[in-house]
């Protein structure tokens, strides 16, 4: 069963900060990590990225890896510049008040599989 | 969840052996950002991280985390290992990425730490 | 050294105190091997050898009638063949101690009579309950001094107690750590040492955690952003204050720096798991009071207090 960003946003009560119009995207998997180099090396195209980084660089990484979107955890506020850049690059950014562990648990519950690989 | 169950669930290697496998871990945290670990304190929790620097050990020490599991096959640096040994921490290493590690532990019933 | 001299005097005084405090029954050997008056001196030789004794009381149907020692035995063997009964060689003219007497009485009796051992009897029942040698006294005193020493060690590490003993209007214990800038291998070492010390000082674990999480964040800030500095902890009854001082570059906008998520950290710092703009807010959350002064080009002075 395929899930879209919209499904996830609804199920996890995510606060969609940018890219509302892109939520029909299919989520092919999930990848969690806060080290950009790690995500650059290992996240698979089409995955949703779970991180607590809010720096503009996350948009560059998501764009380079063609990730479908970013979930920022722990209720952290993405920087203005990050949201602006995400708008330009068509990367939806959503915020959860939960921790990485709990967000991943809920995604797994929904059937979103491990998004590691090329 | 016991340490034994965690090791089995994550198919983890035990990097530092000074532990009792019947030891109970009640919560898990997953983060590569040490400040994040420090903001939400879970004494006795399991920390899943990809950060293998000495700071992973100092952070565990300050936050009273007792088990650290390195994800995606990462092995701690030598200095990291030495610090962990001095502090009697349990160190594990799993080939699974963070996402999969969280998912599997969750399915086995290990709770997260958001509500604290 | 002067302090050593003082120590020795104190210890000597403590030893004197002990011989008044301790009772004979605390030092005596309760497992008493006895002989009977009709036993031969050869029997005595074997008993003394078997139990490695240098003397023993002589009992006749439950009554203490004498004391016989290895000296008596030697004399007997020199003068005869050891077939004579114990009663011919024992001292019937012996001195006893009561079990509840202070040890100082025993010491005085040892000096006065020159005996090697005293039978110890119960003051009420007059029954033999033990035997006391000089060796027993020494062993007991040493054990007691050792226990005292351990107790003192523990007490010395309970700040609530020894702070109370130090008379002043305000007593503070200071711990100072030098932090090297840009040295990531050692970043965290100071807070780690501080944590161990605060635990040793008996501060509650929850407070220790808050103090050292905050100090670790501050330490990381010094390592990441400055050329290094000094982290000091001042322990007082009821609170611990940490000051962190560096000499640059300083924080241009303190208000923004205090906002969660704001960070000026370069990418390589983020890849080390820091610099996500959580440091100062986290320090604030952990502490009861916080003061931050900074001048660009001069340095930063951070001070926070955690109530313990």
Write down the overall geometry of chain C: rod-shaped
Q: What gyration radius of chain C follows from the Cα positions, in whole Å?
A: 35 Å
Count all strands of chain A and give the number.
Answer: 7
Low-confidence stretches of chain A: none
Describe the structure.
The complex is a heterotrimer of chains A (118), B (116) and C (308). Chain A is an alpha/beta fold. Chain A is 36% helix and 20% strand. Chain A has helices at 5-11, 36-42, 57-64, 80-89, 100-110; strands at residues 3-4, 15-18, 26-27, 29-32, 47-51, 69-72, 93-95. Chain A starts with a strand and ends in an 8-residue tail after the last helix. Chain B has 116 residues and is an alpha/beta fold. Chain B has one domain: Udp-n-acetylmuramoylalanyl-d-glutamate--2,6- Diaminopimelate Ligase, Chain: A, domain 1. The two termini of chain B are 18 Å apart. Chain C has helices spanning 2-21, 24-27, 41-51, 70-79, 103-113, 134-156, 159-165, 189-200, 205-225, 254-257, 267-270, 279-286, and strands at 55-60, 63-69, 97-98, 117-121, 128-133, 173-180, 228-236, 239-246, 289-295, 299-307. Chains A and B meet through β4 and α5 of A and β2 and α5 of B.
TL;DR of this structure?
The complex is a heterotrimer of chains A (118), B (116) and C (308). Chain A is an alpha/beta fold and 118 residues long. Helix content of chain A is 36%, strand content 20%.
């Amino acid at each position: 069963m395929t899930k879209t960003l919209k499904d996830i946003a609804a199920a996890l009560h995510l606060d969609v900060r940018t890219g509302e119009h892109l939520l029909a995207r299919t989520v092919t998997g999930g990848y969690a990590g806060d080290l950009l180099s790690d995500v650059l090396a290992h996240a698979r195209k089409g995955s949703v990225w779970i991180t607590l980084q809010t720096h503009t660089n996350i948009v560059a990484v998501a764009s380079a890896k063609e990730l479908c979107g970013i979930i920022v955890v722990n209720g952290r506020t993405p920087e203005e510049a990050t949201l602006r850049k995400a708008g330009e690059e068509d990367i939806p950014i959503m915020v959860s008040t939960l921790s990485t562990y709990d967000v991943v648990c809920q995604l797994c519950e929904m059937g979103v599989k491990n998004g590691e690989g090329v | 969840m016991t340490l034994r169950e965690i090791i089995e669930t994550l198919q983890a290697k035990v990097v530092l052996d000074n532990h009792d496998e019947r030891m109970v871990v009640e919560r898990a945290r997953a983060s590569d950002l040490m400040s994040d670990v420090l903001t939400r304190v879970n004494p006795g929790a399991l920390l899943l991280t990809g950060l293998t620097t000495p700071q992973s050990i100092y952070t565990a020490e300050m936050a009273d985390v007792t088990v650290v599991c390195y994800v995606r096959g990462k092995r701690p640096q030598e200095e990291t290992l030495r610090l962990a040994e001095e502090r009697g921490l349990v160190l594990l290493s799993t080939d699974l990425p963070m996402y999969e590690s969280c998912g599997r532990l969750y399915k086995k019933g290990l709770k997260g730490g958001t509500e604290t | 050294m002067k302090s050593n001299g003082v120590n020795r005097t104190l210890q000597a005084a403590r030893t004197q105190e002990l011989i008044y405090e301790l009772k004979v029954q605390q030092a005596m050997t309760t497992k008493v091997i006895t002989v009977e008056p009709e036993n031969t001196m050869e029997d005595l030789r074997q008993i003394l050898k078997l139990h490695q004794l240098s003397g023993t009381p002589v009992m006749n149907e439950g009554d203490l009638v004498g004391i016989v020692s290895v000296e008596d035995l030697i004399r007997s063997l020199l003068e005869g063949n050891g077939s004579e009964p114990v009663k011919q060689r024992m001292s019937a003219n012996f001195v006893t101690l009561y079990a509840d007497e202070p040890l100082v009485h025993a010491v005085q009796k040892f000096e006065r009579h020159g005996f090697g051992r005293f039978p110890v009897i119960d003051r009420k029942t007059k029954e033999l309950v033990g035997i006391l040698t000089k060796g027993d006294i020494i062993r007991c005193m040493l054990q007691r001094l050792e226990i005292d020493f351990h107790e003192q060690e523990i007490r010395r590490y309970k700040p609530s107690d020894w702070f109370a003993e130090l008379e002043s209007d305000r007593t503070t214990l200071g711990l100072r750590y030098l932090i090297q800038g840009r040295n990531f291998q050692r970043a965290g070492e100071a807070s780690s040492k501080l944590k161990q010390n605060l635990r040793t000082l008996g501060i509650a674990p929850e407070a220790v955690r808050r103090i050292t999480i905050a100090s670790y964040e501050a330490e990381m800030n010094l390592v990441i952003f400055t050329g290094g500095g000094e982290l000091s902890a001042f322990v007082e009854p009821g609170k611990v204050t940490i000051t962190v001082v560096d000499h640059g570059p300083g924080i241009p906008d303190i208000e923004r720096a205090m906002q969660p998520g704001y960070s000026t950290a370069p990418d390589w710092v983020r890849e080390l798991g820091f610099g996500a703009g959580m440091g100062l807010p986290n320090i604030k959350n952990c502490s009861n009071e916080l003061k931050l002064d900074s001048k660009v080009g001069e340095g930063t002075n951070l001070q926070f207090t955690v109530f313990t």
